[in-house]
Amino acid sequence: MERNERYEVNSQGELIIGEPVTLTQSERKKMIENMFSINGWEYDLLDEITPSHFYIELKNGNLEIEKKIHLYHGNVRKEDPDRNREEKKIQLGINNDPRTHIEDGLIIGFYVYENKNSLDDAVIVAWPIEQDKNYHGNPSLRVNMRTDVLSAKNKGYHLDKTSGKNLVAFRPEFIYHYIDNYKQLQYSNKTTYSNTLARNRIFFGAPGTGKSYCLNKEKDELLGENCKDYERVTFYPDYAYANFVGTYKPTPYTDNEGKDLITYKYIPGPFMRMYVKSLKNTKTNNLKPFLLIIEEINRANVAAVFGDIFQLLDRDDNNISEYPIQASEDIKKHLKEKLGGNIEDYAEIKIPDNLFIWATMNSADQGVYPMDTAFKRRWEFTYLGINVNEEGIGNKKVILGTGNYKREIEWNDLRRAINDELSHYKINEDKLIGPYFLSRKNLSELENEQDFIEIFKSKIIMYLFEDAARQRRETLFAGCADRSRYSSICDEFVNKGVFIFCKNISDKFEINVDSNSWEVV
Predict the structure, then answer these.
(1) What kind of architecture, by CATH, is found in domain 200-384?
(2) Taking Cα atoms as reference points, which of 290, 288, 331, 96 lies closest to residue 194?
(3) Domain locations in the chain?
(4) 139 compared with 369, residue with greater pLDDT
(5) What are the two backbone dihedrals, phi and then psi, of residue 449, each rounded to the nearest 5 degrees?
(6) Contact 312/325 with Cβ under 8 angstroms?
(7) Average per-residue pLDDT for the chain
(8) Which of 105-119, 139-153, 416-430, 448-462 has the lowest mean pLDDT?
(9) CA gap 241, 339 in Å, rounded
C-alpha cells in the first residue's frame, strides 16, 4: 500500500485500496441540500454560521412537520498514514462547538469515493455530541471503514455498538429515519450508571419500624449524604395525577404595561421534575442517579395518581421502561422547553435507568387505599420486621407508676410485651408497635417521668385504644376500672403505669422500684 493510499469502499460495496476522495466546500453544501430535499421535504438554509455549521429548516407538508436543526458537518477524510489505515475522521474546526446546541444539533460527515457528487454513492456518518469533549481543540471524530462504512454501504444502516463511539452510518436515503431516531440511538436512556439497588422499591412494615429512616439511610448511600438530586412527596387521599405529573394552573404575571394579569402555565409535578433532571443527565458524561421519594404511597389512589405513568414502571434488563407511553401535547411542550430539540422528539417517553422511585407504606393504617396486583408486581418490596433496628433506640429506661405500682421499664421490653399480647389476639403484625413508634427524638428530649407519661398517653395509648386494640379494649386494659373511655385509661396510667394493662403484660415487670430517679440511657 502506497503512503497516500487507504482502505476505501467502492460503488459495488467492496472494501478496496485506493487514493481518498473528498468534497469541496461548495460540493458538500450542494450535497446537503440534495440530501434533505428528498421525498417531498423542503430544505431551507437559514444561516451559514461557519463553513461547518449551518442552521437549517426542514418542512414536510404531507406530514405537517417542521424542524430546525443546527447541522455541524465535514468531510470523512484520511487519517495519518502511521495510524490504522482503515480509520478516517472529520474535524469541525476550532470555531465550532456543538455543545452549545446539544438539544437540536447534529454532527454528520460525508464519505465519498466513486461518483463523488452522487448521493447514491455517498455514506453519511453521524456522531453524538459529547458534553465533555473539547471541541474548541478541534478533535478528530473517527470512523472505521471496515466495521462502519462498509456495513452501511451494503446494509443501508449501521449502528456502532462495540467501539464506544456510538456513531451511526447510513446511506443518504435514511437521513430522516436517523433524525427521527438519533436521540434513542445515540443518547439512549441507558446510561453507564450501574447500581444493584432496585429502581422501583417500597419499604413497608408496622408503624414505628423505621421505614423512612431506612429509606433515608439508603438514599445517602445511593446519592451521597450531601447530594440534592432527590425530591420527596407525601401522598394523601385527594392527591391526584395533576399533582404528581403536572397540569396547567393559573399563574400571575405582569404585562409590558405593568398590569398584573393571570395566565395559564404548565406546572410540572415531582415526577416530571425528576424525570427531566434524570433525562438531561443521561446526555452528559457526568452520569449520576436521581431519586423520587414517595412517603405513604397507599394513602392515595395510586391507580389514579400514576395514570399512564404506571406503564413506565415495567423496567427491562437495562432498567429502562420496557413499554413507552405516548406523551400528551402538554408534556411534549414542557419537555421541549426544558430539554430543547423538536417537539416530535418527545412523542414517546420512558423512565431512564438513572431514575429511582422509592416509597414507604403501612398497609394496616386506617384510611389507606388497596393496591392491585398489577401495580404491586412492578415494585420490589422491602419488609421491615417488627423488631428491625431496635438497637437504634438503645437501652431507654423510664420509671412508671407510683407506690406499689412503681416499676423501672425499658421501652423495648414494654413494647415487646404489648406486641406479644396483641399477637395473642391474632392481630396482624403490621398493627404491632415498632421500636420507632416513639422516635429517638421523642425519647432523647424527655426531661422527667411526666414528659414520658404525656407522650405515652398521646401516642401509644391512643393508638391502642383507637386502632390496634379497638375490639379488645376490655382485655388489653384489664387493669383499668373504666376501660370504655380513653380519658379514664390515661388518668389511671399516671398512677398505675404498666398495671393499666392485663396481667400478661404487667407480670413481666415484677421488681418494685423505690428510687425516685429518672433515667433515659
Answers:
(1) 3-Layer(aba) Sandwich (3.40)
(2) 288
(3) 6-186, 200-384, 390-506
(4) 139
(5) -60, -40
(6) yes
(7) 89
(8) 448-462
(9) 22
Single pTM value for the model: 0.65
CB 206 within 8 A of CB 433: yes
Residue 439 has pLDDT above 50, yes or no: yes
Helix, strand or coil, per DSSP, at residue 504: helix
Does residue 444 have a pLDDT over 80?
no
The stretches of 224-357 forming alpha helices (DSSP H) are 241-244, 270-281, 302-306, 329-339
CA 270/CA 281 separation, integer angstroms: 17
Residues 213-219: contacts with CB within 8 Å, 24+ apart? Answer: 213/389, 213/392, 213/436, 214/382, 214/384, 214/388, 214/389, 215/293, 215/358, 215/360, 218/358, 219/291, 219/293, 219/358
Residue 362 predicted with pLDDT over 90: no
Higher local confidence (pLDDT), 160 or 232 = 232
Q: 52, 31, 33, 53: which is closest to 43 by C-alpha?
A: 33
CB under 8 A, 24+ apart: contacts of 213-221: 213/389, 213/392, 213/436, 214/382, 214/384, 214/388, 214/389, 215/293, 215/358, 215/360, 218/358, 219/291, 219/293, 219/358
Residue type, 437: F
CB 457 within 8 A of CB 490: yes
- SS3 per residue for 219-258: HHHHHCCCCCCEEEEECCCCCCHHHHCEEEEEEEEECCCC
Q: In whole angstroms, give the CA distance from residue 205 to residue 211.
A: 7
Percent of the chain with pLDDT over 70: 92
CA–CA separation, 202 and 210 (whole Å): 13
Cα–Cα separations (whole angstroms), residue 185 to 105, 160, 369? 14, 10, 40
Question: pLDDT tens digit string along 63-107?
Answer: 889 999 999 999 999 988 877 889 999 999 999 999 999 889 999
Distance of alpha carbon 29 from alpha carbon 45, whole angstroms: 10
Helical H segments across 395-496, by residue range: 411-424, 440-444, 449-455, 462-463, 473-476, 486-496
- In this structure, the number of other CB atoms found within 10 A of the CB of residue 504 comes to 15
CB count within 10 Å of CB 2 equals 9
Residues 6+ apart with CB under 8 A from 441: none
Tell me how far apart the alpha carbons of residues 251 and 264 are, in angstroms, rounded to a whole number. 6
Answer yes or no: is pLDDT of 267 > 90: yes
- Per-residue pLDDT of 182-207, as tens digits, reads 887 887 655 556 788 899 999 998 88
pLDDT of residue 520: 41
